[in-house]
């Protein structure tokens, strides 16, 4: 057939093994992986000597073209085309986006996202966001799992009065997930307390972006994380905590895993590599771009979360890519509560994790593949179609040059956002080639993506309940406690 590529002489990396080998791609699928593959003249050859050949990144957490926090003017600025193009330029070849119900209906929400995703230029999957609870939602969850290829549902313990659900309803949701073989996910912050914290800041006259961080400290993330973990333990069903941003929340996950509970913790790249100092920038436009929930934390948290990733306490890295441009962020110029929540990351994640964790020697290259790709494919039940360089796997592959460098700027990124929270970052390791579905789409700093070429990846329900999750060692935790608690300092 027509689309054959041979990647020669690179170090092929999977989550548990690396070796110098060739990778032969035929018609979108990896046909062979072994040293010294011989091919005819008609096959395109890429020389990968001295470079790493790895499964393309899978971002477990994105929000493309999402209406959020009220009005349509706060719809996220990246759609399924621009967001995915950005992803491909940064070495991510698949993502899982959160479907938002339409008027509370999961089926209408699913339909709307099928429409939005027609622009796709890489494969994608869906989680379903649960924004309220009743019998219809419960019935529709069953349809999503049995017919639509969704095996994960996210519940909000924050955003009071908008999408927050109480414990009674969370328990219903957990039971339903368990009966369907689906994975329950939670946004873990105590929404009632956040509401109180916000009121307090406004009363104190703190209306700027720093009020966002001060109003919802790590304590509230830890409380909700602990509560969700215990309720999932009570129902005896696995739980996935999205965007783990603080030491405090991470420790709750570590404790539960130590006791053998099936809990997955997902840090996001902003939480790993940034700190909250940007939120205190006197320039509103700069400060506002860092506003996301849970907030980016004080110095110390990111380092501890990286340590937790390196020890397996947290299992995979996402982004929560949710971009708003500065005119949208300016919606909250007089009141931080109105700043649309979200930061970029879909294009930067692979580079930043390489730079801060692999180039610095904190994790191995095989661990890099595990936390950026393989673990996500395993957790959402699409391994080894995705997340591996094995015969029969989809040919979603990146070639990374460890001796080259990358540079981040809103002037050169591929997102439609006019800002970048990693502005000016220069780091080691560069994704020089991205192959998606067997086609080279990123090479020589040039994107050649095909609108509409991405496919929907159905994620089947689980017939096992994460037997494989290992118990974590928590003995190191006390040594990681460090960050300044600015909220306490305010009182
Ligand atoms: N947090 C964000 O920052 N954006 C999207 C949703 C969320 O929980
Ligand atoms: Zn829209
Ligand atoms: Zn969230
Ligand atoms: Zn999110």
From TrEMBL:
Homotetramer. Belongs to the metallo-dependent hydrolases superfamily. Hydantoinase/dihydropyrimidinase family. Carbamylation allows a single lysine to coordinate two divalent metal cations. The modification N6-carboxylysine is found at residue 154. It is an enzyme of class 3 (hydrolase). The gene is LOC113695850. Residues 52-441 form the Amidohydrolase-related domain. Its cofactor is Zn(2+). One of its GO terms (molecular function) is dihydropyrimidinase activity. Coiled coil: none annotated. The keyword Oxidoreductase does not apply. The keyword Zinc applies. This is dihydropyrimidinase. One of its GO terms (biological process) is pyrimidine nucleobase catabolic process. It catalyses: 5,6-dihydrouracil + H2O = 3-(carbamoylamino)propanoate + H(+). GO terms for cellular component: cytosol.
């Amino acid at each position: 057939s027509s689309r054959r590529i041979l990647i020669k002489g690179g170090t092929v990396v999977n989550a548990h093994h690396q070796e110098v080998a060739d990778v032969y791609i035929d018609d979108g699928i990896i046909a062979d992986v072994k040293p010294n593959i011989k091919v005819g003249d008609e096959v395109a050859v890429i020389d990968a000597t001295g470079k790493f050949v790895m499964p393309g990144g899978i971002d477990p957490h994105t929000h493309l073209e999402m209406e959020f926090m009220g009005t349509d003017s706060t719809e996220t600025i990246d759609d399924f085309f621009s967001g995915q193009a950005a992803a491909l330029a940064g070495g991510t070849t698949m993502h899982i986006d959160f479907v938002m119900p339409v008027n509370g209906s999961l089926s209408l929400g699913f339909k709307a996202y099928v429409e939005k995703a027609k622009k796709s230029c890489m494969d994608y999957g869906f989680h379903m966001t649960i924004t309220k609870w009743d019998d219809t939602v419960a019935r529709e969850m069953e349809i999503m799992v049995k017919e639509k290829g969704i095996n994960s549902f996210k519940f909000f313990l924050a955003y009071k009065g908008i999408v927050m659900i109480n414990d009674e309803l969370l328990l219903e949701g957990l039971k339903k997930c368990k009966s369907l073989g689906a994975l329950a996910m939670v946004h873990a912050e105590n929404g009632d307390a956040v509401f109180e914290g916000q009121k307090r800041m406004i009363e104190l006259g703190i209306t700027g972006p720093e009020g966002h961080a001060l109003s919802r400290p790590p304590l509230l993330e830890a409380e909700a994380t602990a509560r969700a973990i215990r309720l999932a333990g009570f129902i005896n069903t696995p739980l996935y905590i999205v965007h783990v941003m603080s030491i405090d929340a991470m420790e709750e996950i570590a404790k539960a895993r130590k006791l053998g509970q099936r809990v997955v913790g997902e840090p996001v790249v902003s939480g790993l590599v940034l700190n909250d100092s940007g939120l205190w920038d006197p320039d509103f436009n700069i400060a506002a771009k860092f506003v996301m929930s849970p907030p980016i934390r004080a110095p110390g948290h990111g380092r501890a979360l990286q340590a937790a990733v390196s020890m397996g306490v947290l299992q995979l890295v996402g982004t929560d890519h949710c971009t708003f441009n500065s005119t949208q962020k300016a919606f909250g110029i007089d009141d931080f509560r109105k700043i649309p929540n979200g930061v970029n990351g879909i294009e930067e994640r692979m580079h930043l994790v390489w730079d801060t964790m692999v180039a610095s020697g904190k994790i191995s290259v095989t661990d890099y593949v595990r936390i950026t790709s393989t673990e996500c494919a395993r957790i959402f039940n699409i391994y080894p179609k995705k997340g591996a360089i094995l015969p029969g796997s989809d040919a979603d592959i990146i070639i990374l040059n460890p001796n080259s460098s990358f540079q981040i700027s809103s002037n050169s990124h591929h997102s439609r956002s006019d800002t970048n929270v990693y502005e000016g970052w220069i780091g080691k390791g560069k994704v020089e080639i991205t192959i998606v579905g067997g086609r080279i789409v990123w090479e020589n700093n040039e994107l050649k993506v095909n609108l509409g070429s991405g496919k929907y990846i159905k994620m089947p329900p689980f017939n096992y309940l994460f037997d494989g999750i290992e118990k974590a060692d928590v003995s190191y935790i006390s040594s990681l406690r460090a960050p300044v608690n600015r909220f306490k300092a305010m009182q």
